[in-house]
Amino acid sequence: MNAKGPRIQEVAVEAGVSTATVSRTLSNPDLVSEKTREAVLAAVEKTGYRINRAAQNLRKRQAGAILVLLPNLGNPFFSQILSGIESVFATSDLSVLIADTNGIKQDQLTGYFRDTRADGVILLDGGIPRAVLNELAQTTPDNRIVFACEWKPGTDLPSVRSDNRGGAQQAIAHLVQLGHSKIGHIAGPRNNVLTKERLAGFEAAMRNQGLEIVPRWVVDGGDFSLDAGAQAARQFIEMDERPTAVFCGSDLIAMGFISEMHKRGISVPNDFSVVGFDDIEIADRFIPSLTTIRQNRTQLGVLAATTLLGQLSGRAVAAQDNVQLVDVLLIKRGSTAAI
Amino acid sequence: MNAKGPRIQEVAVEAGVSTATVSRTLSNPDLVSEKTREAVLAAVEKTGYRINRAAQNLRKRQAGAILVLLPNLGNPFFSQILSGIESVFATSDLSVLIADTNGIKQDQLTGYFRDTRADGVILLDGGIPRAVLNELAQTTPDNRIVFACEWKPGTDLPSVRSDNRGGAQQAIAHLVQLGHSKIGHIAGPRNNVLTKERLAGFEAAMRNQGLEIVPRWVVDGGDFSLDAGAQAARQFIEMDERPTAVFCGSDLIAMGFISEMHKRGISVPNDFSVVGFDDIEIADRFIPSLTTIRQNRTQLGVLAATTLLGQLSGRAVAAQDNVQLVDVLLIKRGSTAAI
DNA sequence: TTGTAAGCGTTATCAA
DNA sequence: TTGATAACGCTTACAA
For residue A261, with 0-12 CB atoms within 10 Å meaning exposed, 13-18 middle and 19 or more buried, which class applies? Predict the structure, then answer.
């Protein structure tokens, strides 16, 4: 900012007190007598005083901001989590910084901390290199890093996540209930932690139901995209024997799959039952509407933000709260049918 | 930040120069002899020095950040513009702050400036109250506000926008080419500036083509959502005489419309041709795939960011560049067909 | 080309 | 409960 308004000194003069008292009134009103407090507040009002954040941050040795690191800002899935995060910090006086890990270089990334640009970080990217994470952790002694949605196995940083395994199991249970026993899975990106959890949930559920896991029917999506689903559909089409149902690692995969099948004249749910994961907005209006596992993205964001806010105010995360699991919900729609 | 690294003084000692020289080396390398520059850089490397942004900002009387105000962070449309913005600032040393105007109160909003939290603003929300905008403009003498995507009529702030009228005209021309003459329009939210432009484009195109604008066929969507489209579909179904094609104010409206029509046994494109606006990711995989007007959202963000960055470095926006129009593109797909 | 030193606008310590 | 005052870590005249 260029246009500079009144400074604390002017307020002090106006109120007939010292700058220290003005400062106290604004940050620790209890330390000040009611009379002075009123006088100061009136002077603030009259002068239109606004605190200078840079000065405050310098003096308090803080950044006054938290950083949200996303793997892909253009992905609506992440931006909805971001929305939840933002809603929490909107009422604090911390600013929310964002950065996309997509194009970012390693040293830039850790620079965010060493630069004193952020007092804490919310990581939406479980794929962050361990070296970077280590450096982040080093420069933030009190563990001011929280994972949301994704996380990094082998680290003990607090994280907020959906019940991915449970979701997969609900999906399979639903398909079994509809009479399916030949069930496939289209996974997400191979090294993604969500992919692994959902796959593990799928396998556990299949075993529990006494169903055979056919390796050819468990295909690698490569990523969570529409194209991944379309690609998988082509693989299934070429098989001699196909499953009657597939559980997909994401809604986009599911929609890409259905869309490609449709092009080839194969109908969902008549020829194939399909379950997605996420419940993105369009799922309800897709043709057919998509049966899926709903993740509460806003809540993921809100919880992560609340956790970080707690840490910043000195509250340590209790050991049993280190992993906060958010329930998911099976939403039955038109893409699944009895066999 | 708590963990405090080396300060500029330590680097100076290490390099055997004054703090002023270190500062100069880092921000104005040209003012320093090559020999000293190398010594300083080596000292920076050795000590692991990182600048303290708060101190720098205080001294330079700046915020070191720009603010992006979005009407709805959860909306993928906006977050993709945000992605473009972020990519530009990632290489500057300005941070990108975000705030959602959705829940924000007026005084909080202007507070972002008076607080010296941001050196400039990119506004994605044309619906911002004029009072707020005025106050923003007052506290930012050099017009460090840029509109992206939406804008506020009657203000002369720089803006970057898609060619909404042109897009509407392309849509109508396409439908006419397919033999349609009974064409309706499902508009977006009534007071939205994009809605008005697209409606104006629709009307102009219809007149140019010598076609009648049937008032009943121009319906108010209320917003840009799927539900708005579904709601409009119900209205059309009840009509005695219907158009053979509709141009929609957004892809979501178009998909909601198609989805609802499908439920009622009315087929797109056989019974209805539908054109959307935006070309969101799913448009290509929707069933039927959606003919639409593609907006380059990333470019909108990039241009807005570049414009603001220019203003922050003192370059005024040339009068003829005050409105930067980004071309849109008709994407022909499966939701439109010859009559 | 480099160094000295005076702030930038707060907050926190200490004393009153 | 309040006030003086010394930092916080950097940049930038001005001087050398």
Answer: buried
Query: In degrees, to the nearest 5, what angle opens at C-alpha A187 toward C-alphas A183 and A189?
Result: 175
Number of H helices and E strands in chain B, helices first, is 12, 12
CA distance B260 to chain A (A): 8
Token pair belonging to A301: 């964001």
Structure tokens at B290: 């959606």
Q: Quote the CA–CA distance of A228 and A276 in Å, as a whole number.
A: 13
Contacts of A92 in chain B (CB under 8 A): none
| Cβ pair B83:A63 closer than 8 A | no
Amino acid A129 reads: P
Please identify residues in chain A, positions 42-81, with a C-beta within 7 angstroms of any atom of strand D. Answer: 55, 58-59, 61
Please, are residues B300 and B122 in contact by the beta-carbon 8 Å criterion? no
Give the pTM: 0.93
Report whether pLDDT(A3) > 60: no
- Say yes or no for a CB contact (<8 Å) between A90 and B104: yes
How far, CA to CA in Å, does A98 sit from each of B17, B156, B165, B311?
36, 29, 33, 22
Cα torsion A303, A307, A308, A311 to 10°: value is 170
Phi, psi angles (nearest 5°) of residue A68: -110, 120
- Binding-face residues of A in 63-92 toward B, CB within 8 A: 63-65, 72-76, 78-80, 82-83, 86-87, 90
Q: What pLDDT does B132 receive?
A: 80
Kindly state the tokens that stand for A273. Answer: 């039952």
Residues in chain B closer than 8 A to A259 (CB atoms): 285-287, 289
Does residue A168 sit in helix, strand or coil? Answer: helix
Contacts of residue B267 in chain A, CB cutoff 8 Å? Answer: none
Q: E strand or H helix at A146, and its extent?
A: strand A145-148
CA angle A320, A140, B74 (to 5 degrees): 70
Domains by residue range for chain B, with CATH: 8-51 (no CATH), 65-162+297-326 (3.40.50.2300), 164-295 (3.40.50.2300)
Q: What is the pLDDT, as a whole number, of residue B307? A: 95
**CA of A47, C1' of C3: distance in angstroms:** 40
Dist. CA A182–CA A124, nearest whole Å: 34
Q: What's the pLDDT score for residue A129? A: 85
- What's the Cα-to-Cα distance from A46 to each of A1, A117, B111, B276, rounded to whole Å? 21, 32, 16, 52
Q: Which residue is nearest to nucleotide C13 (CA to C1')?
A: A20
Give the C-alpha separation, A276 to A168, whole Å: 10
